[in-house]
Amino acid sequence: MKICRQLGISYKRFLGWMPSRGDEVEWDETERNWMRALAEYERSLCPMCGLPRTICQDPKGELTLHAETSVCWATAHMQQAMKRWTDANGRDNPAANALVAHLT
Ligand SMILES: [Zn+2]
């Protein structure tokens, strides 16, 4: 459903629907309800961790939820590459805010 919103098309169009006689309306009540349901679902998620707020923001979570850390080495290397660039070219360089790192 998210991909439909990103593409700006209805779910039924995503599935191949095309306007036809007697079925000309793309954004019918069903399609609008799909999008409303998606928006409601997304509002129920925590912006920090992506879990349902009812789970991660429940006071019991302090004792029942556990986490581990790991390193995304791709991100670490890309950030190092961008730091090398700003060290060499200056943090005030206008291009410093438009750096794009690539894995090689
Ligand atoms: Zn959360």
Secondary-structure blueprint of this entry?
Elements: H1 2-7, H2 11-14, H3 29-43, H4 53-56, H5 61-64, H6 73-89
Zinc ion is lined by residues 46, 48-49, 51, 56.
Elements, N to C (H/E): HHHHHH
Strand content: under 5%
Distance between the termini: 33 Å
- What's the pLDDT, averaged over the residues? 94
Question: How many structurally independent domains?
Answer: 2
Biggest sheet character: none
Radius of gyration: 22 Å
> From the helix content, strand content and strand pairing, which structural class follows?
mainly alpha
Bound molecules: zinc ion
From the spread of the alpha carbons, the general shape counts as flat
**What level of helicity do the residues show?**
40-55%
Uncertain runs are none
Kindly state the number of beta strands: 0
Number of helices: 6
Condensed summary:
The protein contains six helices and no strands. By secondary structure, it is an all-alpha fold. It folds into two domains: 2-64, no CATH class; 70-104, no CATH class.
Features:
single chain, 104 residues, mainly alpha, 2 domains, binds zinc ion
Structure description:
This protein is an all-alpha fold and 104 residues long. It folds into two domains: 2-64, no CATH class; 70-104, no CATH class. It has helices at residues 2-7, 11-14, 29-43, 53-56, 61-64, 73-89. The protein is flat and about 65 Å long. The two termini are 33 Å apart. The model has no long low-confidence stretch (mean pLDDT 94). Zinc ion is lined by residues 46, 48-49, 51, 56.
